[in-house]
Amino acid sequence: MAKKEKRLILSRGSSKVLYLLPQDDLLLAEFRPELGVDGKKVLKIKDRPKIAAELQAFIFAYLETYQIPTHFFSQTGSELFIKRLNVIPVEVTVRNIASQSFAKRFKHFKAKQQLDFPVFEHLLKDENGEQFVNESYLYALQCVTPDEFRTMNRLASKVDAVMKSFMERRGFTLVDITMKFGKYKGVIMLGDEISPENMTVIDNATGEEISVSASRDSREASKYYQLVYSRILPSASRGAAAPKRKA
Q1: pTM score
Q2: Range of the domain at 191
Q3: Could you say which of 61, 84, 107 is where a domain stops?
Q4: Residue 62: alpha-carbon gap to chain centroid
Q5: Using one digit for the tens of pLDDT, what is the confidence trace for 192-224?
Q6: Is residue 139 part of a domain?
Q7: Are residues 142 and 192 in the same domain?
Q8: What is the 3 state secondary structure string of the chain?
């Protein structure tokens, strides 16, 4: 692997830097210590590069066992090797329970209220900003075809179901989860991250709603991050090596 200073940067985002690799179909993801949220605040999370890489490797490998295709390739230390996707510029959020922020937007629901039917939200994010859209907008903008939209939603539903069970066994109730997708050699697969940053959970032991992205400050964000990490990878959080997984 080339030295870091010689790597060519593909993009520098609010949570990680993506580097080009000699293999055209792979990228190197390096997680940043800080996390940018909504372009308004920056949360500095203790040990984030190491924790984020370990969580991504573990969760993506776990999802792969349920035949959910992901962009994960391998992990080395705090670096993640991922397949280079043609990213679909849409975030898909599946809501099982009304979070505090969702309840503020929709007065029909109370915070922590179980939804009778999962709510799917699609947020278009591009150079023009971000806005909620439905499938007809995405077809008109040629972001996806009807078949691709159905595949994306089917995968989102499956990820939600798998992660609900996964988190329940670790003492959490999954409130909502946000996902991004892309195409790799014609196949739509899960990309970006599945981590404490893009899900909201309730700690079943305390009833506290936990959302890293909605944290008030870096101290609270670090506390939430460490709590989720210690439940998902308890041996790693005590200093042992994280399990090595590869898709």
Answers
A1: 0.90
A2: 87-216
A3: 84
A4: 14
A5: 999 999 999 999 999 999 998 888 889 998 999
A6: yes
A7: yes
A8: CCCHHHCCEEEECCCEEEEECCCCCEEEEEECCEEEECCCEEEECCCHHHHHHHHHHHHHHHHHCCCCCECEEEEECCEEEEECCEEEEEEEEEEEECCHHHHHHCCCCCCCCEEEEEEEEEEEEECCEEEECCHHHHHHCCCCCHHHHHHHHHHHHHHHHHHHHHHHCCCEEEEEEEEEEEEECCEEEEECCCCCCCEEEEECCCCCEECCCCCCCHHHHHHHHHHHHHHHCHHHHCCCCCCCCCC
Q: Are residues 49 and 99 in the same domain?
A: no
Answer yes or no: do 69 and 116 share one domain. Answer: no
Same domain, 113 and 169: yes
Q: Provide the CATH number for the domain around residue 175.
A: 3.30.470.20
The number of folded domains in the chain is 2
Helix axis angle, 48-64 relative to 218-232, nearest 10°?
40
Are 98 and 212 found together in one domain? yes
For the record, the structure tokens of 181 come out as: 């997708």
Please tell me whether residues 104 and 157 are part of one structural domain: yes
* Of 25, 19, 10, residue with least CA distance to 186: 25
Distance CA 31, CA 27 (A): 13
Distance, in Å, from the CA atom of 188 to the CA atom of 181, rounded to the nearest integer, reads: 7
pLDDT in tens, 115-174: 999 999 999 998 888 999 999 999 999 999 999 999 999 999 999 999 999 999 999 999
Cβ atoms within 10 Å of 11's Cβ, excluding its own: 10
